[in-house]
């Protein structure tokens, strides 16, 4: 029984299909904007899960996956993609770029001498 449910989930393609199968209400306006973010967060929640899925019934799996999808959806109702940082591009925006090895700051005055940088007064 549970295997057939998991196979049905594997065949789903659109975000709407997941919401319908798991019977999670959604606002199409939110889904249009955040569909990829929601699905990625849903995937992240599944990957972090520790539930033994093999021993569960179809209804238990539906409730479990439904709660994860609802949680992912809620993340984007109360927040934005930039705040949630699901994708790498948003994670990198907050982190300063690491300095390259072997690159060092060299001041101009150390190259030509500080006395040559001073303006000559006439």
TrEMBL record:
Report if keyword RNA-binding is assigned.
Answer: no
Q: Which UniProt keywords apply?
A: Nitrogen fixation
One family from Pfam that matches here is NifW
InterPro entries linked: NifW (IPR004893)
**Biological process terms in GO annotation:** nitrogen fixation
Instruction: Cite the record's note on assembly.
Output: Homotrimer; associates with NifD.
What this chain does, per the entry, is described as: May protect the nitrogenase Fe-Mo protein from oxidative damage.
Q: Which family does it belong to?
A: Belongs to the NifW family.
What's the protein called, per UniProt? Nitrogenase-stabilizing/protective protein NifW
Protein species of origin: Methylacidiphilum caldifontis
